[in-house]
Amino acid sequence: MEFKKLNNNEKIPYISYGVYEIKPRKTEKAVLNALNAGYTSIDNAQVYYNEKEVGEAIKESGIPREEIYLTSKNWVSNSGYEKTIKAVNKTLQDLQTDYLDLLLIHQPYGDYYGSYRALQDLQKEGTLLSIGVSNFDSARLVDLTMNFDIVPQVNQIETTPYFQQYESSEFMNKLGVVHQSWGPFSEGLDKLFKNPILLEIAEKYEKSTAQVILRWLIDREIPFSCKSVKTKRMEENIYIFDFKLNKKDIEKIRELDRGKSPFIDYNDPETVVEFNEEII
Ligand SMILES: NC(=O)c1ccc[n+]([C@@H]2O[C@H](COP(=O)([O-])OP(=O)(O)OC[C@H]3O[C@@H](n4cnc5c(N)ncnc54)[C@H](OP(=O)(O)O)[C@@H]3O)[C@@H](O)[C@H]2O)c1
User: Is the CB of 26 under 6 A from ligand 1?
Assistant: First the structure.
């Protein structure tokens, strides 16, 4: 697996297997299949409600813990210093581990300042190797970096051909925060896998459009978390290191950028209410 270096000299794998929206009863099998297919990194979150099953799958796989990169995310209702410490301990227990490779603040809502203080302390004691945030826009990110000693190692944000995030990416690079993509396929919305521009590039390299999308992220040096519950697609999605897009391909894909998410607006009060109301 290829890695990107983080600002604390730790690293993050370019490819992670995401377990969002995989039902608990299906998670263990999906994760075992992903590990068998060659994934070495699992992207999890408290609000995915399947951390226990991920922990079981890892135990069942027999793969040594240090050979797997584990990420989780602290949910809004667990924000604040004390609650974050408690929630991270529960995550560790559910995942059957005594450390995480990466812990992110899942959303820029609630007392995330308190949470970040907790993350810093947990990192100093070695429980969290790397820390970061998710869904933070540039303004919130710079504010956080100006008020803490530790610059977040990662900001995981939606990054897809529909929402390419060039400006945010450049800004994160300047701050020394690694940009990680979530949902690179936009869940296949608006026939993304059949998009003519992606199909043309895919044909040229004899790859699938899914592989072109993931390779496009690698060529932009953006690690990502992607998901399939189908074994064949899991394999397809990691078989992307035998080709490379050129500048022209990347320029072509740029035409698909809508400049905003097809799913969510983090500045919409309704989003803020919805996420604050999800109590876990
Ligand atoms: N930080 C955040 O707030 C946040 C938010 C959302 C997601 N995430 C992370 O990002 C991960 C990925 O996002 P996601 O799960 O929403 O969606 P995604 O990976 O963008 O897309 C998943 C969809 O694409 C399909 N798919 C996958 N590979 C394919 C292929 N090769 N060909 C055709 N279809 C394919 C899957 O169907 P099948 O399963 O049927 O193959 C599924 O419907 C999550 O699991 C999570 O780890 C983070």
Answer: no
